[in-house]
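Problem 12. The chain below contains 1309 residues. Write out its predicted structure in token notation.
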Amino acid sequence: MASESEDAGTVKAARATTQKKRRRKKKKKESKTRVVHANISRQRRGGDGGEEGDGGDEVEEEDPNRRFAGNEIKTTKYTLLSFLPKNLFEQFHRFANVYFVFIALLNFVPVVNAFQPELALAPVVFILSVTAVKDLWEDYRRHRSDTEINHMDCLVYSRAERSYLERFWKQVRVGDFIRLRCNEILPADVLLLSSSDPDRLCHIETATLDGETNLKQRQVVRSFFHLDCEFDPSKYNGVIECEKPNNDLNRFRGYIIHGSGRKCGLYKENLLLRGCTIRNTEEAVGIVIYAGHETKAMLNNNGPRYKRSKLERQMNVDVFWCVIILLVMCLFTAIGHGLWLFQYGDKRPVFDVLSPEGADLSPGLSAVYLFLTMIIVFQVLIPISLFVSIEIVKICQVFFIHQDWELYDEETDTHLQCRALNITEDLGQMQYIFSDKTGTLTENKMVFRRCTVAGVEYSHDANARRLAMYQELDSEDEGECPSRGGTLPRRDSVGSHQSARVVLRSQSTKSHRRTGSRAEAKRASILSKHTAFSSPMEKDITPDPQLLDKVNEGSSQLNFIHFHRQPMSQLPSDLADIIDFFVALTICNTVVVSSPDQPRQKVRMRFELKSPVKTIEDFIKRFTPSRLTSGSNSSSSSSLVTNRSSTRACSSVLSSPSAESTLTKLDEEGSRLQAAFSPVPPSYEGRAWGGGGREPEGGELRYEAESPDEAALVYAARAYKCSLVGRLPDQVTVELPHLGKLGFELLHTLGFDATRKRMSVVVRHPLTDQITVYTKGADSAIMELIKPPLTDNSKGKRQRKILYKTQNYLNLYAADGLRTLCIAKKTLSKEEYACWLQGHLQAETAIQGREEQLFQSALRLETDLQLLGATGIEDRLQDGVPETIASLRKAGLQIWVLTGDKQETAVNIAYACKLLDPEEEILTLNADSQEACAVLLEESLLYIQAKFLCSSSSPHHPSMPPFHGDLSAFHLYPPPASSHASTPFLVHRLGLVIDGRTLAYALDKSLEDKFLAVARSCRSVLCCRSTPLQKSTVVKLVRNKLKVMTLAIGDGANDVSMIQVADVGVGISGQEGMQAVMASDFALPRFQYLQKLLLVHGHWCYSRLANMILYFFYKNAMFVALIFWFQFYCGFSGSSMVDQWYLVFFNLMFSAFPQLVTATLDKDVSAQTLQTLPQLYMNGQNSEEYKPYMFWMNMIDAFYQSLVCFFIPYFAYADSDVDLFTWGTPITTLALITILLHLGIETKTWTWMNVASIVFSVCLFFGVALSYNSSCPTCYAPSNPYWTIQRLLLDPRFYLLCLVTPVTALLPR
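Solution.
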């Protein structure tokens, strides 16, 4: 027995050592990655099938997921115990609150107290309590929301029950298996392992994360494709290793290691994020990877943004000066008191107060005590209610901005949103505006205009006339309808592409807008909201007749060649390029196809294709020599015929064809036979799945595109009868004229990125059985990758001619302001594909550096391309953009446009929107190296200096000496004295155009000063081909170096960094989701509303707040100075002739309401005048309403008025027998009347609320005084305020003082 126990002890020790080693290894690994085990496997080890926790401590010890966060979320800041200390701690971060609490506590010290301690505590307790109640209410709302979310239901797998049981969200843990149902919200970040969808797809809606309502596809992990639909978690034996939690919504890296040791890569397409909604999928099963606060959605939830306005920063400086004035006054009084006591010498005055010990106080010690007492008495000088008043006023201002119906867009049913309450006044002080172009200045409704294929240009004149007709209809409707939108309401297209049908439809639409039923209009708007980028203007493209004939001819010949098993090389090159061009437009995208009547129901159609290539072994099995011979067309054609290809092992992955689909395919085969032998080509019927003939209006397939460019190209291809009819993870189905439906096996998708500026798809062509790469991207990126043509044969000459002509057409398109894209292809041999695939698979399974490896893999593939053609897409300017830019220019705002478009397109749009003026000179900076950029900047500075800064006696000529970096003439940096007032810039009639590459060089530390000197001297700046990082860098550079107020406006995710860096960020709630809106301070429906937001509301907000802050300083200083003058008559003893109730509540109650009303409603200039005369906006740019000297002028005015209000009653009651309060109460009354009349003089716009607030304040004062003086005979002995105000109201002298004193005090005004 002993030996057995020793062996058992040894085994336990060995296990403990092993576990420690494992923990150390895990800690090392977890520094970079996370390892997730299924909880079901831990339960199996923990005991006899018990639920979690049944195994006691041993199970917990073995739980590998125990360190990961649970799924319960808590967004509240407080608990019942922590609320009071934590809230007070947060409020004491504001220096003013600390100061007032210190003053209130100081009043409890008997030696220095000036008021009744409880009374002195009342104001600060009131302010702290109001703020605490507000914080408590907000936190309670968060608590209720958390409770509601944590107690939502979901299905979690239980091994004990061998089924899915309902659990609360808060009970979900990392490693749990979850069953998800249609329209259910995801409780955590889940890795998709199974889906009821036969194609192993799951559609999600991510509107809660990024604001985008279009559906996104997610797919089951590749290694689980072979599993049955009924996923059994008990058979799961994998371990997941992935990256640690992060807030990047567009990235997920990792791999799963199966029990056999095989690795399978994991991607963002396999991850379902918390907060998304399941669509179009009845059931799905996944394993929780991140839970609770570690989910990507929660990591992105940063809460409201806090920015300090420029006015608030200036105000803090003046608050500091108030503290200095307070200390000076207290020091003066303390010294005066010490000297006054010193003159008595050893003879103590009879009214002198002894120390608590009964001893005499020395004059010096008395002075120290009095210094502290006077801080309490003069505390009103620091405005405790100012901060609260500012918050109230800003909330009211935001409310009235929201109520402005001129900032409401009827077409999109959106209005202005204010997402930052504390910087409204900054809107009136902007100096630089940085704007995106696409979607901000333009509609972001991409309309296909023209194209060039194989060197031949197709102008699409009928399509241009169609667009012109839309614009005419828009202008007519603007005159007849109150709608501000300039586009037609989105309606379903009837699917016809003939110009005659377009005219009829447009006329009917026009009449519908005028007399159509509300039900039809509502139906059209509902259908349009389901699908982005689907307005009639975008969808209904009129094809070019010449190109349409060539498409029909090419597809007819291709069908004949394919049917007779002839080599595809017999198809003429120009027709082959046209077919490839439209195939590329159709499949080189990520568009999801939706069915007609249920826009959220995906269309599914699969041809019997082989499984996607997962490994090199799969590739070798797939591409046998017999499959790549010239006679392999028979095998490829089998993909078009039902049941000829071998089916897969798992029927759940490949749905067996139904009778309906079989009949459909047989019908297609028959139609192709008829087409092959018929002398007349059959007309294209364009029917949908199972349809017979043209479908009625509203019956077309809908395209869920992630960008308007993709939608425009797919709709353009459909106009030429090349329709995208289905998309699966491994297959794209296309319908071509005469050929019917073709299934392209999708092997790889290389997504678009800002560096490559292109995307590619790798497919197996169903007609040639070859691996083909289709690439679509920016012309600057594609043209560099085209294979150089050979010069010794006709094919080479043709290719060179195509290149030359296409480049010319690209230049013409750009000059017309069109967005250009190039289309290219590449055919890979078996060996080339196998070589590339090996490296690509390694990149896919990597965790560290996966993005870089995939990027390099894409670069290796996208070489030696064959150019097919190019497209020109029009993006119309938004309504009112040129007028808005012109108006903002007149207001003194410098406007920079930062865009990713090519230079020619951006320049053309800049002229169209009046950013660039034809009369001004343009400086264009295009450099290939940093040295060349430096030379260009020096030459530009030299040119500006010679032409604009130097005298006419020194003419500019090329032989002038080089620029030596002396930037003093350009006033690059403002002088220190201009911290409060911006120095006017010297701007010349110059425009600057710079491309992205040159901008990267110019933003280098060594050149940024020169770049700023050039850019600041120009009237407008246009940065082309700029990346999101460059946009934010430019904004930051201008803001920090020039010390100016900046505003950034954009509509897309690529503008977020720029919006966040600027002083004020504005998001356009447009076509590219809501990322920009969610990152912004203000959200607008259209760019043109920026004019009124800045010139009107910005001006008003700044003017109101600036005047209110100055008025606060004046009002408090004036009231405190009254007590200061009295110190000269009371031996600087700290006594006050004003009753302490009046002293404490003067600011808090009696004079608070009128200034709030004025600061909310006052309008110094009408809205119409401000928009008619934009130059008035410069008032705020130069801080004309709030300059440093104005603070001191208000202080002087306050001291003057206090002298009048003090000494006139003093002389009026001189040598009389009135008591202190009978003399002091008139002074308080006169001060209140003077302050209110002063506010009345400052008020520019009077309303009934202004009058009512002033009357209310006066009545409130007299009401409180009457009740207080009648009910409090000996409240604070020895003071006796009893019946004071009643006696005064019977004294004619009091009324005479109320008339003479305020008039005298306000005479300088």
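Discussion. Residues 373 and 483 are 65 Å apart (CA to CA). Students who got a different answer should revisit the alignment rule from Section 12.3.
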